[in-house]
Amino acid sequence: MSSSKLHSSIFHPTLRKLQCQDVAIDAHNLMYPVFLVNDDEAVQPIPSMPGVARYGINTLLTHLEPLVTKGLQSILLFGVVDNLQGSKDSIGSGADCATNPVIRALPRLRTAFPDLLIACDVCLCPYTDHGHCGVLTPDGVIDNEPSIKRIAEIALAYAKAGAHIVAPSDMMDNRIYAIKQMLRSANLDNRCSVLSYSVKFASGFYGPFRDAAQSAPAFGDRKCYQLPPGSKGIAKRAAKRDVEEGADMLMVKPGMAYLDIVKQVKDEYPELPLFIYQVSGEYSMLLNAGAIGAFDLKTVLWEVLVGMRRAGADCIISYFTPLVLDWLKE
Ligand SMILES: NCc1[nH]cc(CCC(=O)O)c1CC(=O)O
Ligand SMILES: [Zn+2]
Ligand SMILES: [Zn+2]
Hints:
The protein is an alpha/beta fold. The chain has a single domain, classed as Aldolase class I (TIM Barrel). It contains 11 helices and 10 strands. The chain has an 8-stranded parallel beta barrel, surrounded by 7 helices. α4 (144-161) crosses α5. The longest helix is centred in the middle third of the chain and has 18 residues, at 144-161. It is globular and about 50 Å long. The chain binds the ligand NCc1[nH]cc(CCC(=O)O)c1CC(=O)O and zinc ion (ZN) (2 copies).
């Protein structure tokens, strides 16, 4: 059923370019992750990620405008809320309520940048009081069924608000099928693509992100739902599961330390666009090494990005995207 559905992979010019695969780095091979808060005028720098900030909708539009002029093709939106008014709860209600920053921003982004491809990260962890990516049982383990129900509801809310892509990063079992089902029942499945964070490892490289998204788990870790770094077999099974459930595109995350997995997934599923997430810790690491003069950032970053393309990634999600867009103009 799902493998016969092609339109959700090709309805946008940028999605179509992503179906055409080579190793050059062009603007459509880059996706720019951005953090969005509810204070519309905010610019909140993130200390562990110099050059990256959380924006409000007005400041985000101002930030993106010159980048779109330079050729920016796609963004990945992350909503960030604080818990000062107790807005976080056990089921992540803040992820899809009317005041969610992502839901508020989508119509304005669609109007301001009609050609920009807009993806939304879908997860509970930025919105749950316990900071885990799913709903928990009373004894504190993941309750998969209510979790994927919530994930699908959130994906639908973002699709309705105008997301071209929903990207579930929660790693619950069978969330792709639940999301696809939900999009079909709302007749949105030919207008919203599903990019699965299929092969996501339990990584120390996410440190700066959890600070940026205020999404660190309040207790425990994510090893019961994110994959063990040493594993190849379960990585293969994760990709297979998501392909069978109808994912339009796949992702490996983090990037640089997992290029063998990129190749493994690409060899297995050459017909699906493959994303790689160069995560927050990779960004900090390269930026800091460049800043202390250990190496020339441009040379090394280019090498890393080309390596990702060579391994089989079609699109690189990178906080360096603004810098690379400048280089593409040189
Ligand atoms: N839903 C969790 C999520 N969504 C995006 C990232 C990481 C992104 C980055 O490090 O840049 C993570 C990782 C995590 O906290 O487990
Ligand atoms: Zn999460
Ligand atoms: Zn996430």
